[in-house]
Every structure is written in C-alpha cells, then in structure tokens.
C-alpha cells in the first residue's frame, strides 16, 4: 500500500461509520507489506530499561505469531536479568500502538488446515499472562490505535500511558469473535457496566477518555512521549514507585483536555441500568423499552453483531468477573477454539475484510436460536489441549 493511499485512508478514518472503520482497519492489516521478521519487532536495552517496539507501522503495528515468539522469550530473560529494571513497550509511527493480531493469517490457516488457529491464540494468551504476572514495572505507551490484541499487550501491565491520539476499542463481536486477550478479566472490572457496553458495541474511546474509563493509568501529550521514555530509561536502579513518580509527574503536568467531560458521562446511568441484565436477550429488551436516542443507537449497533459472539461474550464477562487472569485466559482459549470450529468468525472476516460487502450472514441469525447446550460446549474443557499457564 503506497504512502499516499495510506495517508488519505488514515485522514478519513475518524469520519467513517464504526463498521466501515473496522473494515478499513482490517483491510489495512491484511494489505500490509511483509517485512523481514527480524525488523517486525525491535528488542533493545537502553539504560535501566528494556524497550519493545512493535515495528510494522504500515500495518498499524498488528502482530503475528513470529513477533510473539520473539517477544515472549526475551521478556522472560529480562525478568531474570538483574540489569533490567523495567520494560517499555511501544508502537512505531504516529498512528498506532497496535491495532490487533493478524486476522487474515488465521483465516488462511483455517483453509489450509494449519495449526496456526490453535498456536496463535495459545501463544498470544501465554504472552498476555506473562505481562499480567511480570515481576518488574511494565510500561505500555499506548499512543494511537490500541485495539483487540494490542489491548492484550498493554492492559495487563502495571502502567498504560494514553495520549490524545489513543483510540481504544474491542470490536470483536463485529467479526464473529469475542473480546479476548483477557477481556473477560479487565472489562467486567471497569466502572459500572462500562465494560459490558464496550464489549457488545465495540465503542471507541479516545484520548483522555481512555484514562477516565480506567483503561489507561496515565495521560500525557503525544509530543512528550519521547522525553518521558528518555526519563524512564535514565532512572538509576528504579523501583516500581520510582517509575510511578515519573509517570505521575508527566500526567499531572498535562493540561490537555483536562476540562473535557467523559464522552459517556451523561449516559453512564443508562449504561449501568440497561446493561444490568441476566441475559443478552434481556439487554436487547431493555434497550427497546427505553426508546431514548442513545438506547436505540446502541440497539442498532448491537443488532449488527454476531448473535453467537454476543451470547458468548455475555457469559464470558459474567464468569470472568470472579476469576483470576489465568482462569480467564484458559476460558478464553476454549472460546477461541469454539470460534475456530464455528461459522461466524470466518463469515465476519469475509464480510468485513475479504469481500467487504458489510453484510455478514450470521448463523444462527438470532439470539433465540443459540441454545444453552451450544454455549456449554464452547466453555467446555479441551482436556489435554487446554491452555496451560
């Protein structure tokens, strides 16, 4: 994809409708040039810190299994290295931290019968767990698009620094998947029913709102990120508290959008009441009964999503709120394999990414046709194939 096309597409991105935006992002990922695998991720030591740079800016820093296989062992080595005091992970370029995993490769793997449909999710979730249990300060600079798998590389670490360019979303229900990478752990722990709302609708939070929502721990101007990174690497034998002090000082000095109201602030009471329900069907009924413009907008969005994804996601979040991260990731690996066995993921990718007709034919097409027995089968243990953490 040429730089001119890329530039035009990125300028248009904010004005497109949500479903079209997802299509553009996924198309961008699929058309990215294949780069030398050694250049796809940069792993370096600088001062007291180890720096991970996701280095596929033309692909919005989407990651593939070769990148996971480079990051994970190096992360484990740095955890044991007495000269490494913290980790900083960032994305190359100004557009994205990481827009997610390489969905196209997974779709093609299904057709060819490759193990990638198993290995990608297994190794991705093992990496998510390594981040969530990392013993040293882990700082994710989530400057730009941070979606799907990019959330998994950041949200489980100690610190997440958003900027005015940050765009957060978990848009998986639009492509027949569910908000994985530990979504079942962090989403139901957000304030009120915000996590449920984000999971079902794929709503995008931008800039300071990512911090207000509780996803980012700090908010800093994008132009200050280079200085922040330099200050972090120049710390002498820092503790987690020392790292927090640096991040806090940058956050406190940042006045950008300080007076801005949270984008969902006026709707939070409605979100908390409408999304408090015992089933996905009940949420739909709540939205219909409410009838306000806000409720009807969410209803319009949700009814485009995969019914199977919605019901899986509802149960995932209900169960995830009382599980630890390891048990959530084990559950989500089972769900990923159910989606790989099923219809909707591949149909969603076809409609959004391959044929781009924006008209996925979900099977089943309505929530009521998805039985409890089917859902139970999605959550069932895979026995010796279960994720081991």
UniProtKB/TrEMBL annotation:
The record places domain Enoyl-CoA hydratase/isomerase at 50-379
Pathway given for this chain reads: Amino-acid degradation; L-valine degradation
SUPFAM superfamilies hit by this protein? ClpP/crotonase (SSF52096)
Keyword terms: Branched-chain amino acid catabolism, Hydrolase, Mitochondrion
Predominant location: mitochondrion
Record EC number: 3.1.2.4
Is Isomerase found in the keyword set? Answer: no
| InterPro entries linked | ClpP/crotonase-like_dom_sf (IPR029045), ECH_dom (IPR045004), HIBYL-CoA-H (IPR032259)
Name a GO CC annotation attached to this entry.
mitochondrion
Catalytic activity field: 3-hydroxy-2-methylpropanoyl-CoA + H2O = 3-hydroxy-2-methylpropanoate + CoA + H(+)
GO BP: L-valine catabolic process
A GO MF annotation of the entry reads: 3-hydroxyisobutyryl-CoA hydrolase activity
**Could you tell me where this protein is found in the cell?**
Mitochondrion
**Job of this protein:** Hydrolyzes 3-hydroxyisobutyryl-CoA (HIBYL-CoA), a saline catabolite. Has high activity toward isobutyryl-CoA. Could be an isobutyryl-CoA dehydrogenase that functions in valine catabolism. Also hydrolyzes 3-hydroxypropanoyl-CoA.
Family listed: Belongs to the enoyl-CoA hydratase/isomerase family.
In Swiss-Prot or TrEMBL terms, this protein is called 3-hydroxyisobutyryl-CoA hydrolase
UniProt organism field = Python bivittatus
**Upper classification of the organism:** Eukaryota, Metazoa, Chordata, Craniata, Vertebrata
